[in-house]
Amino acid sequence: MSRYRKLSDYLRGKYGTRVHRLPINAGFTCPNRDGTISKGGCIFCEETGSGFGAMGEDVPISQQVRVMMERAVRRYKAEKFIAYFQAFSNTYAPLDVLRKKYESALMDDRIVALSVSTRPDLLQEEILDLLEEFKEKVDVMVEVGFQTSNYRTLMKINRGHTLAEFIDAVIRLKKREFEVVAHVILNLPWDDMIDVVESAKILSALKIDGVKCHSLYIVDGTPLGEMFKRGEIEICSLEEYVERVVRFLEYLDPRIVIHRLVADPPKDKVLFGNWGLDKRKILWMIEKELEQRDTYQGARFNYLRRKGVDWFGKGKGIDGGSDQTRL
């Protein structure tokens, strides 16, 4: 039995067969790049907007879907699919444009879900109304950028929003019963273990449905890449990253589905990525550490809905001591 709730197991249990995500490049941009909020985007964002696994935006969406479906059937024996709008901010366009693009991706009955990746400040009520229309045809997942619970780090990476916008977006999405997935980066240079644990707590308290954990990679030509080349930042060690992932999982609600624990960096222009290792090696290290410690997702999930006397009357943290000293 797995020590955390894997996406593959969740999808097979829900749909009864192997399900494969189809990354789509719909040609969107981001208000954090075009000057609406800022220019240049998040300091780690490269020119594909984290959509390097998708085809070029000049390829019609229906063709992207068809080609990737055929490939997934041959390579993975997939039988059902998720249309995954991945690159940049996929709710950043007029409603009629969004509707047309989403509809063009649902061109086959084997597509069982629509997954849309976006920013928390791009989920206006009109957008949610539109996404709700598609719930009549397929399941709808909304992936929202969270990255970190640390306000100062959010400013450092030029996210252009704070934790408040993320919380607001999740509350409104959950009210409409969307499946919500949060993106989090566990090795940002300005974060430590306290931030990692706090992120797990916040996502659990918000009843997030899924979490996609990324190991930070650094691409040449990005602001973060320039900082890296000037020696202004340090990335934690691989051993520290494994420790952070394990601790994150321990504090995370065991109900939450884990979509990813390690990033898959692009092959070109990477200055730093996964400590030079294949992501499968790092995943193996994480799973081995969980096994050696005999721990699992939710092992420390005992901090919500507790009586105040547990915290203040006895002066105890979740492990019988201070939260910050017993992380």
Describe the structure in your own words.
- The protein is of the alpha/beta class.
- It has one domain (7-313): Aldolase class I (TIM Barrel, Alpha-Beta Barrel), CATH 3.20.20.
- The protein is 37% helix and 15% strand.
- It has a seven-stranded parallel β-sheet with strand order 1-2-3-4-5-6-8, with helices on both faces.
- α2 links the parallel β1 and β2 (80-85).
- α7 (193-205) runs parallel beside α9 and α9 (238-251) packs across α10.
- The longest helix is centred in the first third of the chain and has 16 residues, at 61-76.
- The radius of gyration is 20 Å and the shape is globular.
Note the topology:
Layout: H1 7-15, E1 19-24, H2 61-76, E2 80-85, H3 95-105, E3 111-118, H4 125-134, E4 139-147, H5 151-156, H6 163-175, E5 179-185, H7 193-205, E6 210-214, E7 218-219, H8 223-229, H9 238-251, E8 257-260, E9 270-272, H10 279-293, H11 308-313
Parallel strand pairs: 1-2, 2-3, 3-4, 4-5, 5-6, 6-8
Antiparallel strand pairs: 7-9
Write a brief structural summary.
The chain has 327 residues and is of the alpha/beta class. 37% of the residues lie in helices and 15% in strands.
